């Protein structure tokens, strides 16, 4: 590898290098302790020194130096892993450089010329792969060490590397941590003790920062049941953040099947860089904080002051600019932020004296001062502010629309005003008017609509309660749904039209749950409410088939429809499902399980008395699941639950966590005194039934009980506003950043727990049909699953990702296609299958793929291995015999499925008499398969003679049978000749060596075709079995036990090295076609 020329003052520093070749301008050296005469104490010391100092010499012990005769300064220009590699560089210098150097007069010119040539070579090599790295030269050297030490597939992309210590007990091993797209790797070499560690991100259970008595701070990794600790003097936080990002990227790509189409930096796993990960993390944080659409990316950040009119001073903060939004967030503790859509910018910004003035449509001017790169920011805003929304969605119309909102709630109030007595309503509506007045004052000071200032006062008003008339407008604003709807005019109407009349599993589930959604609420006792709910849920299922429809979405959408228009309710649902509660609404509800784990952590931290009494916090996870899935709507009366939803849309999941802690705190004494879980559930249910909303404008006859429990018990009433205020006062110090970090940490554990549950269920089912023990099945499952992921590591378009669906039955979640199966089978097959591995793998795959869908599940794979490892001689031979039978044509019809199901129920075992006969071509191939199985065995010659004897015997038996048959039928002159020719051909085929008989299947079909058409003879399985039983060598070979544990251990080590490439895939397809031609 060519190196960036670096000056070396001493040619033989510390006598660590030995000169192998030299001339007038170059020196080729070998690192002492390597190569011939290497090892010993010198090798140990030099190897340790190279590892600790991160020297390239550890993996590249050869180098070439450049010098001039009249100078003592040497320049390193190349290094090599092997002598062949460094000699290639040496020869290139001799052929291309040496002759040119004689032209120069001065040493400086010679050195400059050599350095220029070397830099040109480096630039040419790194044109594509290293241009995005911060220090390409150092990165090239690190990449060389990474590839040499860990021997991962060449496609694996190194992202970054750090110096660190790996703790084994109380003893640290100083070495280097390498972080790549799919693996965490560590290498250390100290005085002959080599430590090498490779862990894939998708196998991690825990990734967290910890501290203990020995280490003030370290990174803890839990994988394969083992704990690993890494510490470093510098960059620990940076290292942990990169590890967190890589683990999250791997989980989203491999388990969630996210393609990152909107993130070019992450769309190709072969081009992942540290810079790209950091940019993606910042954009995610930016979108989450400002509640922006997923399409937005953080483009620029500028520090500046913003003139705040309501406080009459400049507040320090940062301007964050994306494709369509200009956002500002304060940094001085005032918790002030504002979001300005570019479509709302009325006039182009005026810039003067490092200040910018941005005019917003129909509102006011915002002045940013002390902007460093103000001219660049002004130009960017000018280029983007021409984008505007449709007139019907402009911000100027938002306020007017909010004044004439017609929702299910407003229609309900209209009905009540005409049917109920006003005695109760007058007092409650007076309170509503007072709330509205408070908000109107707030709007006049802080603005209204998309460009409103968000401050502490805004949160205070939210905690006190939102007026019913403003609830829908504020939900749209706080969730960011108002921006989604403004930028997609007419989108919802199109979805409704396209989804109208569709029939899917999602629509069937929606129809089933429509009348279960707030059934006692008057708004959903008529077709108006039910139809609106149906349209919103069906349109969303059509928009996002990955989520489709899940339970709890109907309850949430029902409440949204009470306070928002139908289209607004749709966009609110989009904001909740896709941004605010990610991964909540799917078959495994991973997001809710993750937040339950976060909730448990907060309970341990904030409620120690409860933890002391109830050490097992899993009870709270089971109880709180409905809290998170329905935002307390299913446990609280509706008029109280909407106040919780107010806080949720403003503060996100943090508001739900705070309220959950407040509920447990309020019932602390009762929960501590309870004796079992059932009593604790009763206490919480009674508490939720007692929660009221004293400010609700609805009369008691219409107010709803909680969805989950309608029995009112005698309990002191608790006002929801007081409960929310107490939650903010006691637990308002919980930061959203801490919640996000805890989510990432717990997501690994939740996913791996679900995966482990899947594995245990699969093993339990498979263990009933095989003779492998639980430990062996566990190892086999890990290999099977890893083979699935190996085909996904280096591409975004792997077919295996399409096969993986967590919503399927346990056995069907992980399945292998032929290429994946072929690699894994070659690692675990009990016999050495010579050179026809792919062909035999194809036959085995075809045999065990009973439904012919091109996929094999774990049970089918294990049953095949169980036959080959633990089956009797007869079963093993029957398995090999069936490999050579022609496959079934087409898909299995319904009658065949029913018959197969009936046979499984009756446990009808296939007998040897049920097997069809094999013809001449199939028998010849069967004989060749036996030859290949015996190849490499110590008794190879004896086994070859046994197979030849059996083959010859069977052919003679067939010939005798034919002659007896001919005696009773008219003679045909062509038949004996053909039969004799077939016998000679078969005998010759059987007596050849495996090498000479190893031809392709298609070739055999062409050669044997004429014989097959002229002489139709065949053998039954009983004939083959009876003949082979007479050969003790063959019987003992098949009955010889094979150590499955050793095979699994070898496969675990070699699995990464045998990744299937594209050329193998194309060869496999050719074999498929040729095999089909035979049959």
TrEMBL record:
<dbReference type="InterPro" id="IPR004182">
    <property type="entry name" value="GRAM"/>
</dbReference>
<dbReference type="GO" id="GO:0005096">
    <property type="term" value="F:GTPase activator activity"/>
</dbReference>
<keyword id="KW-0677">Repeat</keyword>
<dbReference type="Pfam" id="PF02893">
    <property type="entry name" value="GRAM"/>
</dbReference>
<feature type="compositionally biased region" description="Low complexity">
    <location>
        <begin position="966"/>
        <end position="1002"/>
    </location>
</feature>
<dbReference type="InterPro" id="IPR011992">
    <property type="entry name" value="EF-hand-dom_pair"/>
</dbReference>
<feature type="domain" description="EF-hand">
    <location>
        <begin position="836"/>
        <end position="871"/>
    </location>
</feature>
<dbReference type="InterPro" id="IPR035969">
    <property type="entry name" value="Rab-GAP_TBC_sf"/>
</dbReference>
<comment type="function">
    <text>Involved in vesicular recycling, probably as a RAB11B GTPase-activating protein.</text>
</comment>
<keyword id="KW-0963">Cytoplasm</keyword>
<dbReference type="InterPro" id="IPR011993">
    <property type="entry name" value="PH-like_dom_sf"/>
</dbReference>
<dbReference type="GO" id="GO:0005829">
    <property type="term" value="C:cytosol"/>
</dbReference>
<dbReference type="Pfam" id="PF00566">
    <property type="entry name" value="RabGAP-TBC"/>
</dbReference>
<dbReference type="GO" id="GO:0005509">
    <property type="term" value="F:calcium ion binding"/>
</dbReference>
<dbReference type="InterPro" id="IPR000195">
    <property type="entry name" value="Rab-GAP-TBC_dom"/>
</dbReference>
<dbReference type="InterPro" id="IPR002048">
    <property type="entry name" value="EF_hand_dom"/>
</dbReference>
<protein>
    <recommendedName>
        <fullName>TBC1 domain family member 8B</fullName>
    </recommendedName>
</protein>
<keyword id="KW-0106">Calcium</keyword>
<dbReference type="GO" id="GO:0003094">
    <property type="term" value="P:glomerular filtration"/>
</dbReference>
<keyword id="KW-0479">Metal-binding</keyword>
<keyword id="KW-0343">GTPase activation</keyword>
<comment type="subunit">
    <text>Interacts (via domain Rab-GAP TBC) with RAB11B (in GTP-bound form).</text>
</comment>
<feature type="region of interest" description="Disordered">
    <location>
        <begin position="964"/>
        <end position="1013"/>
    </location>
</feature>
<feature type="domain" description="Rab-GAP TBC">
    <location>
        <begin position="465"/>
        <end position="652"/>
    </location>
</feature>
<dbReference type="InterPro" id="IPR018247">
    <property type="entry name" value="EF_Hand_1_Ca_BS"/>
</dbReference>
